[in-house]
TrEMBL record:
Signal peptide: none annotated. Pfam families: HTH_Tnp_Tc3_2. It comes from the Eukaryota. GO terms for biological process: DNA integration; DNA transposition. Residues 2-39 form the Transposase Tc1-like domain. One of its GO terms (molecular function) is DNA binding. This is Transposase Tc1-like domain-containing protein.
């Protein structure tokens, strides 16, 4: 059986994570954002800091590290509103001030 051979090879199956439904209000907001920023240059976007709340796996090689990342904060366990605010204040803000001193 194929599943047994995959397990013997150390490969496990997984289910795709369910994506949240995008309602009409969110769809309109995304479309407005795209239209408002469609003419931005690389220089415009270089002044933006993105906060990504996704789960990541650390890669052992530097080839997988994106250019321009100044600081990565790893949070173990669940994050609530208060913890997220603290993370932004103590990690994102100092990094932003380093990148954009003015």
């Amino acid at each position: 059986m194929v599943q047994n051979r995959l397990l013997e090879a150390g490969l496990k199956s997984c289910k795709a994570r369910k994506k949240p439904f995008i309602n009409e209000k969110q769809r309109r907001a995304r479309l407005k954002f795209v239209k408002d920023h469609k003419d931005w240059t690389i220089e415009d976007w270089s002044k933006v800091i993105f906060s990504d709340e996704c789960n990541i796996q650390l890669c052992p090689t530097p080839d997988h590290v994106k250019q321009g990342i100044k600081q990565i904060f790893l949070c173990e366990g669940h994050m609530n509103q208060a913890t997220y605010k603290t993370v932004l204040e103590e990690n994102l803000l100092p990094s932003a001030l380093t990148m954009f001193p003015n």
